[in-house]
């Protein structure tokens, strides 16, 4: 049976100031439905690039490989089609949108996805009711919905806002790219609980993180280690604890020797 998400031999590069730079060098990764997987790996190994390529960001050129999402060719889909199909990406650096009201922004995104899925749009009242409940569950201050998107938000508030978006968009597959960076322990737990609340046999997630603490709360089904644009090693949750104790060097050396 084909997997929920199946990445095979994925290579991607970027044109950096006229120079082709190969970043992904053959990524193989399968995520079954209902599982949460984590990717760890040293800075600059291509983790964010992988998430951008999956989300359909245009600056990256895919030169080889394939990505099947629920049996569909993900790479052939427009970013909006990917979102409609259930993909969600929480960015490492959420953008600030001055002059754009957070609740309106979120309602537009939610209704675009609902339309594409053949669901009724939410009117302002119905939407606000759901959004307020979701914001409360994330311990967000009530005024966060009234403010401009991410403008003047603290690091932790931006990450909570990403988790709020994720919760409201009801994705079947979420990628969280270092949604934990810069968060204190309480906020980490809230991000993890946001993901855990979505857990179901129809929901999978790929969590990019450096933090054992986040993984303690999330308890991923599988951990993958990325280095130089490839997945070099996969294992159970104990692999994250080993990395936390010993660093990446040992694993990178072993992979090189193999
Ligand atoms: P990670 O998220 O694992 O830290 P990235 O995917 O952000 O790594 O980056 C992988 C490599 O690709 C790095 O060497 C980075 O500098 C380079 N890279 C990523 N995006 C660009 C870009 N827009 N222009 C030039 N180089 C880039
Ligand atoms: Mg990085
Ligand atoms: Mg990154």
UniProtKB/TrEMBL annotation:
<dbReference type="InterPro" id="IPR027417">
    <property type="entry name" value="P-loop_NTPase"/>
</dbReference>
<dbReference type="InterPro" id="IPR010230">
    <property type="entry name" value="FeS-cluster_ATPase_SufC"/>
</dbReference>
<protein>
    <submittedName>
        <fullName>Fe-S cluster assembly ATPase SufC</fullName>
    </submittedName>
</protein>
<keyword id="KW-0067">ATP-binding</keyword>
<dbReference type="GO" id="GO:0016887">
    <property type="term" value="F:ATP hydrolysis activity"/>
</dbReference>
<dbReference type="InterPro" id="IPR017871">
    <property type="entry name" value="ABC_transporter-like_CS"/>
</dbReference>
<feature type="domain" description="ABC transporter">
    <location>
        <begin position="5"/>
        <end position="253"/>
    </location>
</feature>
<dbReference type="InterPro" id="IPR003593">
    <property type="entry name" value="AAA+_ATPase"/>
</dbReference>
<dbReference type="InterPro" id="IPR003439">
    <property type="entry name" value="ABC_transporter-like_ATP-bd"/>
</dbReference>
<comment type="similarity">
    <text>Belongs to the ABC transporter superfamily. Ycf16 family.</text>
</comment>
<dbReference type="Pfam" id="PF00005">
    <property type="entry name" value="ABC_tran"/>
</dbReference>
<keyword id="KW-0547">Nucleotide-binding</keyword>
<dbReference type="GO" id="GO:0005524">
    <property type="term" value="F:ATP binding"/>
</dbReference>
């Amino acid at each position: 049976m084909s997997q929920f998400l199946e990445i095979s031999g994925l290579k991607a590069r970027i044109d950096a100031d006229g120079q082709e730079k190969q970043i992904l060098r053959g990524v193989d990764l399968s995520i079954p439905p209902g599982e949460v997987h984590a990717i760890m790996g040293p800075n600059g190994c291509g983790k964010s690039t992988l998430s951008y390529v999956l989300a359909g960001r245009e600056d990256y050129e895919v030169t080889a490989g394939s990505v099947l999402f629920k049996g569909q060719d993900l790479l052939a889909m427009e970013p909006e089609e990917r979102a409609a199909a259930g993909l969600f990406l929480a960015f490492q650096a959420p953008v600030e949108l001055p002059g754009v009201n957070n609740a309106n922004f979120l309602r537009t995104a939610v209704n675009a996805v609902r339309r594409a899925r053949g669901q009724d749009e939410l009117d302002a009242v119905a939407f606000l009711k759901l959004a307020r409940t979701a914001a409360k569950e994330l311990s967000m201050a009530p005024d966060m919905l009234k403010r401009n998107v991410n403008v003047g938000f603290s690091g932790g508030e931006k990450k909570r806002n990403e988790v709020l978006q994720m919760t409201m968009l009801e994705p079947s597959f979420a990628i969280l790219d270092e949604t934990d960076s810069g968060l204190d322990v309480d906020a980490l737990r809230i991000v993890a609980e946001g993901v855990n609340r979505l857990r179901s046999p129809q929901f999978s997630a790929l969590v990019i993180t450096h933090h054992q603490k986040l993984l303690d709360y999330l308890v991923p089904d599988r951990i993958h280690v990325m280095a130089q644009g490839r997945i070099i090693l996969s294992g159970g949750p104990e692999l994250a604890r080993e990395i936390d104790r010993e660093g990446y060097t040992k694993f990178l050396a072993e992979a090189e020797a193999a």
